[in-house]
Design goal:
The protein has helices spanning 12-22, 83-92, 111-128, 180-183, 194-209, 222-231, 265-276, 292-298, 311-323, 368-379, 381-389, 404-422, 455-458, and strands spanning 5-11, 31-39, 51-61, 69-71, 74-76, 95-101, 134-139, 145-152, 158-162, 165-169, 173-177, 212-216, 236-240, 281-285, 303-306, 328-337, 343-353, 435-439, 444-448. With 484 residues, the chain is of the alpha/beta class.
């Protein structure tokens, strides 16, 4: 198994729970185990096949009174009471993560940590019959996390490699990279990004340059999102859309011309990003998101933007973000025309969704009935038309009006929401802005905090690869990953 790149992810709730246990206020180290799902890379996936993701799932705190010793520089604890945790990992194909604290803020693994991990992980791999990656992590008093992945060295021991990044998808979005940001060696800001750095700081600008963002939908809202992300200096943009440019798209797809009619939308946007030559790597994928390979490619991104209006597509992205512990920004626009050249309403909403929180469905962005109809329409169009005619299902709306100025306005709101999560600049906490709606026709701005967790999705946080993928039967033919 390749060991070239590993990243680690937590939901905001998981990170907070770990922090509360690891820093009880007595100044001594503490420790917890975490069972993690995985997005396992495969060599046949091309250039990204060696990239692995560990997604936190179940947190098992090691009780303070069970520890042999807890001091400001070490924690010693018995493994035997947790053998059932390793057995659970083996049964469910999960990775084992050990997390402990450094109350003094020491930003490296100590010699004591080295000895402890060298003793623990061969036992973990032997007990689970799983060569890795597993992982060991350290949390610092400010909440920063750094980690290393553990693999079987083939000689009865463990081999460790640095984890490239640790992402925390909560009210704020934290991405801790193993080198420049944590070490303070941020480097020189490129000339085109100087004004961005003046507004949001060198640290945020550097974080953007390392960020991978998946944008699903390359039309009215997707194209301005891509334009803004590239000019902000985002490191990688993964574009997903199956469609070709049509003449009717020219009123709203940025950088599209008549010469592009008949070309894949993703290629048109990718060419525009490449022409900018600002350092953004672009990965165009001309495909529907309802493809197991595409889902797994999107799962490697750090952030997911949904720029589609299909109910089942938005629901699928919510599920991907939950399984793979991703923050998900959903852009929705509604322009109501009266059919006589007038406009009844111009509305739009940007949702920020975090794993383990409320969902688009629980927030009422669409109904279960509408979702069922959308699934039926995609899976069996003839049955859908039959049931629509007999009024067994509600029709899926098609051909709604779209105007570049309106779409770009709400796309900008979504990109600024990403910036607010990376670099909190609001007077109030980000937790109050899970849903931001603006009615241009009424000049009203409405924002809501995250609601109660979606009970069904909350059970899936951090599951990673499953069989069938995402627990969806339609992916069973192509997804043969380990079940979690």
């Amino acid at each position: 198994m390749s060991t070239s790149s590993v990243s680690l992810r937590f939901s905001g709730r998981q990170h907070s729970a770990l922090y509360d246990h690891l820093f009880p206020g007595d100044g001594n180290e503490a420790v917890a185990l975490v069972l993690c799902g995985r997005r396992i890379g495969d060599a046949d996936e091309g250039p990204w096949g060696s990239r692995h993701v560990l997604t936190a799932r179940d947190i098992i705190p090691v009780p303070y009174d069970l520890c042999h010793e807890r001091t400001p520089v070490l924690v010693s604890w018995p493994v035997e009471p947790f053998l059932d945790v390793f057995d659970r990992a083996e049964r469910r194909g999960l990775a084992v993560l050990k997390v402990h604290s450094h109350p003094g803020g020491y930003r490296a693994f100590s010699e004591t940590d080295d000895a402890s991990d060298a003793d623990l992980f061969p036992s973990v791999m032997g007990r689970t019959d799983d060569p890795g990656p597993h992982a060991s992590a350290v949390m610092l008093p400010g909440g920063e996390v750094f980690a290393r992945a553990a693999y079987d060295d083939g000689e009865g021991g463990a081999r460790f490699v640095p984890v490239e990044s640790v992402l925390v998808a909560g009210d704020d979005l934290w991405v801790f990279h193993r080198d420049a940001v944590c070490d303070g060696a941020l480097g020189r800001v490129a000339g085109f990004a100087e004004r961005t750095a003046q507004a949001f700081g060198v640290g945020t600008t550097a974080a953007l340059s390392r960020l991978s963002v998946a944008v699903v939908g390359a039309s009215g809202t997707g194209s301005p999102v891509v334009e803004m992300l590239a000019r902000l200096g985002v490191g990688e943009i993964i574009l997903v859309d199956p469609d070709l440019v049509e003449e009717r798209n020219l009123n709203r797809i940025l950088n599209a011309t008549r010469a592009d009619i008949g070309r894949p939308k993703v290629e048109v946007l990718a060419d525009a990003v490449r022409r900018m030559d600002l350092g953004t790597r672009v990965v165009p994928i001309q495909s529907s998101l309802f493809d197991a390979d595409v889902v797994r490619r999107v799962a490697l991104a750090d952030v997911l933007f949904g720029c589609v209006d299909s109910v089942d597509g938005r629901d699928l992205m919510n599920r991907i973000a939950t399984h793979y512990a991703l923050p998900y920004l959903d852009v929705g626009v509604r322009l109501d025309a009266d059919g006589q050249g007038g406009v009844d309403g111009v509305h739009g909403t940007v949702h920020y969704l975090q794993p383990g929180g409320s969902s688009l469905l629980s927030r009422g962005a669409y109904s279960a009935t509408a979702l069922q109809a959308a699934h039926l329409r995609r899976a069996d169009p003839e049955l859908y038309e039959s049931q629509l005619e007999e009024k067994y299902v509600i029709g899926v709306q098609e051909g709604s009006p779209a105007v570049v100025s309106v779409n770009t306005f709400y796309a900008s709101l979504a990109v600024n929401e990403l910036l607010a999560r990376l670099h909190p600049f609001r007077d109030d906490d980000n937790r109050k802005f899970a849903r931001n709606g603006i009615s241009l026709s009424q000049s009203r701005f409405l924002s809501d905090a995250d609601g109660e967790p979606d009970v069904a999705l909350a059970k899936l946080v951090g599951r990673g690869d499953t069989s069938p993928l995402l627990g969806m039967p339609e992916f069973s033919a192509t997804a043969t990953r380990r079940a979690a």
